[in-house]
Amino acid sequence: MNVESKGNNARESVASSSSTTGLPEFHISVLRDLASADSSVREAAVETMVTELQEMQKAHDRLENKDLVEGGLKLEAQKDDGLDNCASSLRYAVRRLIRGVSSSREFARQGFALGLAALVATIPSIKVDSLLKLIVNLLEVSSSMKGQEVRDCLLGRLFAYGALAQSDRLTKEWFFYKETLHIKEFMSALISLAAKKRYLQEPAVSIILEFVEKLPAEALLDHILEAPGIPQWFQEAIDVGNPDALLLALKIREKTSIDSTSFSKLLPNPFSPSKLFSADYLSSIDNCLKESTFGQPRLHSLWPVLVNILLPDTILQAEDAASVSNSLKKHKKGRKSSSSEEEIAKNVQCFCEVVIGGSLLLSSHDRKHLALDILLLLLPRLPSSFISIVLSYKLVQCLIDILSTKDSWLYKIAQHLLKELVDWVRNDDVRRVAVIVAFQKHSNGKFDCITKTKTVKD
Asked: Within 13 Å of residue 17, how many CA atoms lie on the same side as its CB?
């Protein structure tokens, strides 16, 4: 979609009309720099654009007969866009920016989204409800569009919604006017967009999560969980295998500490780590976990959140059972959770048996890859006493199967894992012994021989 060609014939007329009416000038050519490969050029263009349009809007607000003076500046802005209180050049710029985020030119989306966010944040005359309607109207997907055109429009909407979230207009609106309906409308629009294509789901939720971090718990309960489409989205998540719905539910639950019925069966109720990592619950969300491989080789954002709950901060620096116990006793009074070392170990064992050994390692190459990635994620938090739980028979056998054939699809992934393990145990005798024992126990003492490596020897 070539947005740069739209409105070219009007550029000179805008500048000249502005000068003849005595209004400040807006140099439309600055919009071209928003697609520059140089980030400093894009940022300078945004600064220039916002400054010029701010001055134009201030001058527009002072005019007594706006329609008469600005009659020659209407351009596209003469259309019914809901931005009636905005100067014509500002209206034109907003439309151009929305179209620009749908451009497939290499840096257009980043630049135009940055410009839109800055403009919406700076000029209050741009109304949120009008902007939400414009995003849909200007980036509407029609039946005549082909694959790439559809993709450009949908990605354009995603970037436009992201720009609105980054502008902080919705956040400020809630703090000044708690009864605002715009947050619910924004949330519904994002969830509706996420449902259109699988590749839109995770980035749409990442926009929501960024938004969630800026709002208090009260706003999350009233304006996000109650937004049209959200309860149904949570309700369907387990059946369709939606890891992004699970991620959003976990993050909202983390911030509010409230067991909402809006989460449906997606989260245990009442919530606790032991219930989250129980065999029954983990089996129920199996589809959600397995479908998180969509974005490989990048690890889905859900997994760091789950691992943080599975291995809490209290054992981050624990290297053996004794230090784990001391750490837990030291922090017991200040912790909301009553989890003991035994409870955490039970959670880890259940997680490894149900998710790693009972699901991912028995599935496709992508899911075996995910299992190895999760192990890498666990390592920095893993106490030595838990090594035997994580390096189970099924996991070691999986590594042996992969490493015994150099042509294996996951060969390099498994090699990388072994390298990380060797580095992890290098300066710790307790860890080293635990890893060696696990490898040798589950390979009849032949791990190096079968895998043709020197892992145990090194």
From this structure: 18
0.90 exceeded by the pTM?
A: no
Contacts of 299 (CB under 8 A, 6+ apart): 370, 373, 377
Percent of the chain with pLDDT over 70: 86
Nearest to 369 by CA among 308, 294, 443: 294
Crossing angle for the helix pair 182-194 and 169-176, nearest 10 degrees? 150
Q: Do residues 403 and 411 make contact, with C-beta atoms less than 8 angstroms apart?
A: yes
Choice between 73 and 357, residue whose per-residue pLDDT is larger: 357
SS3 string, 411-456, reads HHHHHHHHHHHHHHHCCCHHHHHHHHHHHHHCCCCCHHHHHCCCCC
In 314-439, beta strands by DSSP E: none
Structure confidence at residue 83 as a pLDDT band (50, 70, 90): confident
Closest alpha carbon to 344 in 312, 389, 387:
312
Cα–Cα distance, 187 to 214 (Å, whole number): 14
- Cβ distance 321 to 383 under 8 Å? yes
Q: Are 306 and 377 in contact (CB under 8 A)?
A: no
Q: Per residue in 54-77, pLDDT tens?
A: 998 998 888 776 665 555 445 544
State the virtual CA torsion across 346, 352, 358, 362 in degrees, nearest 10.
-170
Tell me the pLDDT tens digit for each residue of 380-427: 999 998 999 999 999 999 999 999 888 889 999 999 999 999 999 888
Q: Are 200 and 194 in contact (CB under 8 A)?
A: yes
DSSP state of 318: -
Do residues 239 and 281 make contact, with C-beta atoms less than 8 angstroms apart? Answer: no
> If you average pLDDT over each of 8-12, 16-20, 256-260, which comes out highest?
256-260
Q: Is 177 left (phi over 0), alpha (psi -120 to 50) or beta?
A: beta
Q: Which helix (H) or strand (E) holds 111?
A: helix 108-122
Tally Cβ neighbours within 10 Å of residue 164: 26
With beta carbons less than 8 A apart as the criterion, state whether 378 and 336 touch. no
